[in-house]
C-alpha cells in the first residue's frame, strides 16, 4: 500500500522538498504527498492516523526550535522521529510590483523572522503579515503591486510574479532540520537520539543531576532547549539531542533513560535516528 505523507503545504515549499527527500531515504514506494494547512494540522494527521507519516520542521539555525513541533511531540508521545535532514534555506522577495512600492510583506512567521534585518534595512515602512506557509503568501500577493512575499525561488511560477531580491535571509548559512514522523524506527543508522523530560521536583540542583547523568555516560549534547509545560509558571520541559556513535550507542542511550527516570516526572523518547545534511541545486 502506498504511504500517505503529510507536510506543510501548499505545494512548492521547502517542506514539500523535505517530504520528497525523507520519503526516498525511508524507501517509501511511490508515496502520496498530502499538503496540510498549518503545522499543527500536519502533526495531527499522523497522531490521529489519518496519514502514515508526516514531515515537519523541528529546528532552524537562526530562530532555534520550532515550538509547534516541540510542543506536539510532548503532547503526542507515541510519535517517533524516524529520520532527519538539514536543508539550506535561501529566501527571495517575490512580487508583481517594484520594490519601491512595497508596503506589505507576507510569509510564514519563521521566514519573516529569518529576514527581519534585511526587511528593516530595505523595507522599513512595510507591514509584516504572517501566513500559514511561504507558498500561501505567494498565492496571496498575485496581481498586487504593493504586496510582496518571502519564499523559495521555486515559487515564482505564477504569471506576472518576479524576483525582487535574492537571497534576503539575514544569515547566509541559514538552514532548517526537518524530521520524518512515523510509527517506525531506523536505529541501526542512528547518529542522534532525541528526548524530553520534566523534572520530578523544581529544586536547586535537580536539572544539574539530570545533565550529569548524560555527561557521566559520555554523551555529547548537540541541542538543549526548554519550553513551558503549560501547567504552571516556571515549570519547563527540557528537550535534548545527544550524539549516537561507537562510544555512545543506542544501547548506552537505553541505559541513560533508566538513569534519568528516577529524576523525572515524565520522560519521552522521540527516537534514535539518522540526520544528514542535504545540498540543493
Short account of what is shown:
The chain is of the alpha/beta class.
Give an overview of the whole structure.
With 281 residues, the chain is an alpha/beta fold. It has 3 domains: 4-88 and 175-182, Periplasmic binding protein-like II (D-Maltodextrin-Binding Protein, domain 2, 3-Layer(aba) Sandwich); 92-165, Periplasmic binding protein-like II (D-Maltodextrin-Binding Protein, domain 2, 3-Layer(aba) Sandwich); 187-277, ACT domain (Alpha-Beta Plaits, 2-Layer Sandwich), CATH 3.30.70.260. It contains 8 helices and 15 strands. The strands form 2 sheets. Strands 1, 2, 3, 4, 5, 11, 12, 13, 14 and 15 form a 10-stranded mixed β-sheet that branches. The protein has a 5-stranded mixed β-sheet with strand order 8-7-9-6-10. The radius of gyration is 20 Å and the shape is globular. The two termini are 32 Å apart.
Q: What is the strand and helix layout of this fold?
A:
Blueprint: E1 4-8, H1 14-25, E2 32-36, H2 39-47, E3 53-60, E4 64-65, H3 67-75, E5 80-88, E6 92-95, E7 104-107, H4 109-114, H5 116-122, E8 127-130, H6 134-140, E9 147-151, E10 162-165, E11 175-182, E12 192-199, H7 206-216, E13 221-228, E14 236-243, H8 250-260, E15 264-277
Parallel strand pairs: 1-2, 1-3, 5-15, 7-8, 7-9
Antiparallel strand pairs: 3-4, 3-11, 5-11, 6-9, 6-10, 12-14, 12-15, 13-14
State the helicity in percent bands. 25-40%
Distance between the termini: 32 Å
Please identify which CATH superfamily of the largest domain we are dealing with.
Periplasmic binding protein-like II
State the order of secondary-structure elements, H for helix, E for strand.
EHEHEEHEEEHHEHEEEEHEEHE
Number of helices: 8
How is the biggest beta sheet arranged?
A: 10 strands, mixed
Which residue ranges are poorly predicted, with pLDDT under 50 across at least 5 consecutive positions? none
Could you say how many structural domains there are in total?
3
CATH C-level label of the largest domain: Alpha Beta
Round the mean pLDDT to the nearest integer and report it. Answer: 90
Beta-strand residue percentage: 25-35%
> Count of DSSP E strands?
15
Name the overall outline.
globular
Radius of gyration: 20 Å
